[in-house]
Amino acid sequence: QVQLVESGGGLVQSGGSLRLSCAASGSIFSIYAMGWYRQTPGKQRELVATITSGGSTNYADSMKGRFTISRNNAKSTVYLQMNSLKPEDTAVYYCNADLKNNDYIRRNYWGQGTQVTVSS
Q1: What pLDDT, in 10s, does the model give residues 37-96?
Q2: Which of 61, 82, 68, 105 is nearest to 10 (CA)?
Q3: Biggest alpha carbon distance in the chain?
Q4: What gap in Å lies between CA 23 and CA 97, rounded to an integer?
């Protein structure tokens, strides 16, 4: 069994910063890309940023320059540093991992989500 556990969400004022973490654990053989997505009520889940095992990153346009994704492969953990937060960044943030489990089955896994609220 594989688990993704997120932490670091919360309430912050506009212009503030938060750092999200997501640790993968369980029956993991290899982790490929990891990433962050977010979702607000009534809207589809959208990409925030992804990072490959080699460190290549991809960001949604609205997050470029404000958010930074990074990972620690030894700890199977991905981070999202969010700066200059805006009220429109308020959402539930989900961690995602593309990985192969110990049965050599490759698929996407999702965390339970962490709420980020930015007050104006």
Answers
A1: 999 999 999 999 999 999 999 999 999 999 999 999 999 999 999 999 999 999 999 999
A2: 82
A3: 47
A4: 10
Residues 9-48: tens digit of each pLDDT: 999 999 999 999 999 999 999 999 999 999 999 999 999 9
List the one residue out of 113, 114, 94, 96 whose CA is nearest residue 31. 96
The answer to whether 96 and 37 are in contact (CB under 8 A) is: yes
Length of the chain: 120
**Residue 84 — left, alpha, or beta (φ > 0 → left; ψ -120 to 50 → alpha)?**
left
Produce one character per residue of 79-93: b if its CB has 16 or more CB atoms within 10 Å, e if not: bbebeebeeebbbbb
Cα 52 to the center of its chain, rounded Å: 13
- As given in the structure block, the two tokens for residue 11 are 């309430």
DSSP secondary structure of 10-63: EEEETT--EEEEEEEEESEEEEEEEEEEEE-TTS--EEEEEE-TT--EEE-GGG
